[in-house]
Amino acid sequence: MNTQIFESKTEMGAAAAAAGATYLKSTTGENGSAAIIVATGASQFEMLDSLRAQDLDWPVITGFHLDEYIGMSIRHGASFRKYLWERFVSRVPLPMKAFHFLSGETDAQTECDRVGDLISQTAIDVAFVGIGENGHLAFNDPPADFETTVPYLVVDLDDDCRKQQLGEGWFPDFESVPKQAISMSIQQIMKSRTIICTVPDERKANAVKNALQGAVTPEVPASILQTHPDCHMFLDTGSASRL
What we know:
The chain contains 7 helices and 10 strands. Strand 9, helix 7 (205-213) and strand 10 form a beta-alpha-beta unit. It is globular. The strands form 2 sheets. It has a 7-stranded parallel sheet, sandwiched between helices. Helix 1 crosses helix 2 (45-51). It has one domain (2-236): Rossmann fold, CATH 3.40.50.1360. It is an alpha/beta fold.
């Protein structure tokens, strides 16, 4: 695992986006197309700002949505579909080949099956992900299912995860935070050829330490990244403070 530490979130995000873009340029040059996974949340603001400005052949790039709350309207301020549309998909210089959003407003298992079928037919070149305060990867909270091979699954969100969403300002109170979500599975994320993991802020320092230096265990879902052959960690001084 390659780990880099930066003084600011802006530097961190720019470096993560540039690294991902390097892989994508190589892939589109060789294969004529590429596919990515895109995460959301406050940790991805700077990376996505930089990624959409990269000189990439966007019309041959397909994107997949990492996770979404169940029962979440696209009009809600915490909707990840809304986030991705406003912060990324609608703002790349040219339209992408496709972006497969997850809907939280339809039957959850049907939606898992629908997008799961699409991603099962696609080789993912770069996954842009983060790590949660509880060590989660996507919405796979501890103890995560390291074994399931289904691409997407319905998951229960633990209290620590829900408190993080509240603390980041997405919801007015704890009771408003959904208790379930659709999440890409651990095994599906790990199929990605390259993983770019961007994790800022001191509030995630303990999760980063456990994920990078602790045992590989479902109790720290992101620890599975230690076993990936091409994973790159981008941290700021806060998130790296306990390493």
